[in-house]
């Protein structure tokens, strides 16, 4: 498969960074070529973006059934993107799945010294501080044009919807707190109450949404983001990759790369970005 600027084939290495680069390169190529694909192949692309785990674990038949196409279309899709066939494309998704984050108990175990002794609390604190600083340093290089677009979109919105689940939920709640204090109308969708879609029944194209999601993107977040797009709500995505499934068709997204310490990722940069967005929107609405 041609993997953009990675300069490597999908079989050229198994380390996490290589797999992520290849996976992202494929998704970038997919988005770049999407509009020129035949309708059947667009259906497959939509399914792949929404259900990446199904590709890793399923068969040609299950992917075809999920995308509502013939199996031959799946093979054609794989070859369109320079894979030898479905198996080679699936291998990339399987490697990505294997490279996903480890269970929390394993992360805690990794904190122990090599001899099994406990690590000092100050050492752990220092590790998290360094990860937070690294995240903030990366945030300083955010695309200023995209940031201005995001603020303009949110400032012009009748109502701002906030969507963030799992690790992103504290960020969503904090943004809600800020907007409440700033007297800006908003709704939080990510309450995991089973009634999330009821929250957006009055959402229209006059509204905007901040969708916060990072690898490994919560499936429910992807579904709710799609529901917002169907209502023509203007989505501003806060995410970590150009291959992220929550990036809207408008391409309006802000890149947030959170560093980790022993597998525990910081939310430092995302929190700071949320503060900047909320206060900038309030300033624009003066």
From TrEMBL:
Which residue ranges does the record assign to the SIS domain? 150-286
Molecular function (GO) terms for this protein are: carbohydrate derivative binding; DNA binding; DNA-binding transcription factor activity
What GO biological process terms are annotated to this protein in UniProt?
carbohydrate derivative metabolic process
Alphabetical list of SUPFAM superfamilies matching this protein: Homeodomain-like, SIS domain
Q: Does the record's keyword annotation contain Transcription regulation?
A: yes
- Output the InterPro entries linked to this UniProt entry: Homeodomain-like_sf (IPR009057), HTH_RpiR (IPR000281), RpiR-like (IPR047640), RpiR-like_SIS (IPR035472), SIS_dom (IPR001347), SIS_dom_sf (IPR046348), WH-like_DNA-bd_sf (IPR036388)
**Record-linked Gene3D superfamilies:** Glucose-6-phosphate isomerase like protein, domain 1, Winged helix-like DNA-binding domain superfamily/Winged helix DNA-binding domain
**Pfam name, any one:** HTH_6
Q: Does the keyword DNA-binding apply?
A: yes
Q: Where is the HTH rpiR-type domain?
A: 24-100
Q: Which UniProt keywords apply?
A: DNA-binding, Transcription, Transcription regulation
- The molecule here is called MurR/RpiR family transcriptional regulator
Source organism (scientific name): Gluconacetobacter tumulicola
């Amino acid at each position: 498969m041609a993997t953009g600027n990675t300069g490597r084939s999908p079989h050229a290495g198994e380390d996490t960074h290589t797999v992520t680069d290849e996976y992202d390169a494929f998704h970038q190529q997919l988005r770049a070529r999407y509009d020129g694909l035949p309708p059947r192949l667009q259906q497959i692309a939509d399914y792949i973006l929404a259900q990446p785990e199904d590709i890793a674990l399923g068969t040609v038949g299950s992917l075809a059934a999920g995308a509502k196409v013939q199996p031959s279309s799946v093979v054609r899709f794989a070859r369109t993107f320079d894979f030898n066939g479905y198996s080679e494309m699936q291998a990339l998704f399987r490697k990505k799945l294997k490279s996903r984050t480890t269970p929390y108990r394993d992360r805690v175990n990794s904190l122990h010294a090599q001899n099994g002794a406990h690590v000092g609390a100050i050492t752990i604190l220092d590790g998290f501080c360094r990860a937070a600083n690294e995240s903030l340093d990366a945030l300083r290089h955010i695309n200023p044009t995209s940031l201005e677009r995001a603020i303009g979109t949110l400032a012009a919105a009748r109502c701002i919807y906030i969507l963030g689940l799992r690790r992103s939920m504290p960020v969503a709640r904090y943004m809600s707190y800020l907007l409440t204090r700033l007297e800006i109308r908003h709704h939080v969708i990510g309450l995991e109450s089973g009634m999330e879609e009821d929250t957006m029944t009055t959402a229209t194209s006059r509204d905007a949404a901040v969708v916060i999601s990072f690898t490994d993107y919560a499936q429910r977040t992807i579904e709710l983001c799609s529901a917002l797009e169907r209502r023509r709500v203007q989505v501003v995505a806060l995410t970590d990759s150009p291959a992220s499934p929550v990036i809207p068709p408008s391409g309006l997204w802000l890149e947030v790369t959170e560093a980790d310490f022993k597998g525990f990722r910081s939310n430092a940069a995302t929190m700071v970005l949320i503060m900047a967005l909320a206060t900038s929107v309030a300033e624009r609405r003066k």
